[in-house]
Design brief:
alpha/beta, 5-stranded mixed beta sheet, 22 helices, Transcription Regulator spoIIAA, 9 strands, 8% strand
Length: 531
């Protein structure tokens, strides 16, 4: 692909950036609120994640910004470290540690997560988005946008919040949410196929404009009007000086505090892991299947966190909700992420009052569509058809994310995935062919797999112990390219037992045939990596 001009795909990237902007704005504010930080710190992180990280990243469709997965860490750290300025120092140092991770090539960790877990992560996040947006859709905004954990900061959990919504439905917010959802569905299923104008002007933009018009028209109506708590809430500066006063700066005098460094390392580790997971997921969603250089991504994220911490922003990671919204809206290159960052910057400077007329329920309708596209029912059927070895880690990841949080859910899925690998390794270490002859002598042929490691000890030891007396064992290692020393020691021990049980061993390798070898260790030491 020719990347000589960053504006080559602007007709696709600009409309996508507008959708990402509308998705990012409430999430930036909500994550800041959930983190116990100033609201503007979330916007700063969104701006830097879009412009700085977007420019430096090797990802063409990934979008970075403040992450819900770090909200609990931030909330605890701000109190424990003695203030927001001390916390900002931890963000800066965390960014420096991420740069070190990138230099040390730690990005390779992202390649070791099973596909089933990554797909489970996408589906789990999709379900979480749907569940978390249902209250906002009906005008119940007790829990801030961006609180994706099962146990919420308002004291409720995901499901109790939905049940409580029945008692707090706002007629006006619900009506405009339904209208917005209808516009989005009409746009994506019908109008987008009717002409280029409907592809250039995205449905979410139309839904937001209609939402603003509805708010203005119904202002003052007790039944159908939308009150301020159901609207976007961007800080509105009175003048340039009050705008600049919203920026905060780190307290470098606290750099000797060991708790600052512990928090910095925690931020770097969690932010890097979440970024690498999102990179893997985003690359799977990318229609062009481009591969993001993970070490470069860590360098970009580290740079972004250093700058964010220096000017009063929250920690940054690549985030799947905004990235998937970008892909679903037709974003082709990193310009969509960069433009969305500039849109955040320009809007909070020039039109904060207009932004504060956007109903949260309309933005919830947009996110419901994003969530559904991530968690389509057909994906469950597809994973089930792939067999239990794919379906079980996938399901555990989904359930873990819904009932805990992102990283715990992925950790559970990864643990199950490792168990599945061990089971597969146990099953595939060797192949048996048993023949019973009329002369009473059992003939067994055991063929070892191409790679046999210590994971296979249990399976092979079990088979060898079950070989009956008076057996002729043919051990074929011609296809084996790696034989772990643990397995060689098992064979060596078995050769002693074989003499006592009248078991004859015929060893077949690429170097010839050996009847009852005196020492397996000596035999394989001649070719330690290959039989």
């Amino acid at each position: 692909m020719n990347n000589s001009s960053p504006f080559k795909n602007l007709k696709s990237d600009f409309p996508a950036s507008i959708v990402v902007f509308f998705v990012a704005l409430p999430l930036c504010l909500g994550i800041a609120l959930a983190s116990g930080a100033p609201l503007f710190s979330g916007v700063i992180a969104g701006i830097i994640g879009g412009i700085v990280v977007g420019a430096l990243s090797g990802s063409q469709v990934g979008v970075s910004g403040p992450a819900a997965g770090l909200a609990a860490i931030v909330l605890t750290a701000i109190g424990a470290l003695g203030g927001f300025e001390n916390f900002l120092l931890a963000v800066v140092l965390g960014g420096c540690i991420q740069l070190l991770f990138g230099v040390l090539k730690a990005g390779i960790i992202g390649y070791y997560f099973p596909s089933s877990v990554i797909k489970g992560m996408l589906t789990g996040i999709g379900i979480i988005i749907i569940l978390k947006q249902i209250p906002h859709f009906f005008g119940y905004d007790a829990d801030p946008e961006g609180d994706f954990a099962f146990f919420q900061i308002d004291g409720e959990n995901t499901f109790s919040e939905i049940f409580n919504t029945v008692n707090f439905i706002s007629p006006g917010a619900t009506l405009i949410a339904l209208i917005g959802l209808g516009i989005l569905l009409l746009w994506s299923s019908v109008l987008s196929k009717k002409g280029k104008i409907f592809q250039l002007i995205q449905g979410p933009l139309v839904a937001v404009v209609i939402g603003i018009v509805y708010y203005v028209v119904t202002a003052g109506n007790d039944t159908w009007g939308i009150s301020a708590e159901h609207l976007v809430s961007v800080p509105v500066p009175e003048d340039a000086s009050s705008f600049l006063s919203q920026f905060s700066f780190p307290n470098f005098g606290a750099i000797t505090n060991p708790e600052i460094w512990v928090t910095a390392f925690t931020i770097a580790l969690v932010a890097s892991l979440e970024t690498l997971l999102c990179v893997e997921a985003t690359d799977k969603l990318d229609p062009k299947k481009r591969v993001t250089p993970t070490n470069r991504e860590l360098l970009a994220q580290g740079t972004g966190n250093i700058i964010s911490g220096l000017v009063g922003g929250l920690p940054i990671t690549q985030v799947i909700v905004r990235s998937s919204a970008n892909i679903q809206s037709g974003g082709k290159t990193k310009m969509s992420a960069i433009i969305h960052g500039f849109l955040l910057l320009i809007s909070v400077i020039l039109i904060p009052t207009l932004l504060n007329m956007i109903p949260l329920s309309v933005l919830a309708a947009i996110l419901l569509i994003v969530g559904y596209k991530l968690a389509k029912p057909s994906l469950f059927k597809k994973m089930y058809q792939l067999g239990w070895k794919q379906f079980v880690p996938f399901t555990v990841t989904v359930v873990g994310i819904v009932f805990t949080d992102l990283l715990i859910g992925i950790g559970l899925g990864l643990a199950v995935g490792i168990v599945v690998i061990l089971i597969k390794s146990f099953q595939n270490s060797h192949f048996l062919h048993i023949e019973d002859k009329s002369d009473g002598l059992h003939r067994i042929k055991m063929t070892l797999a191409e790679e046999v490691t210590f994971f296979n000890k249990g399976a092979i030891l079990k088979e060898l112990d079950q070989i009956p007396r008076d057996t002729y064992l043919e051990l074929d290692v011609r296809k084996t390219r790696y034989l772990d020393n643990d397995i060689i020691e098992i064979l060596e021990d078995f050769s002693e037992k074989a003499r006592n049980r009248n078991i004859d061993i015929k060893l077949i390798s690429e170097r010839g045939i050996v009847e009852n070898p005196d020492s397996f260790i000596q035999f394989f030491q001649l070719a330690p990596k290959s039989a």
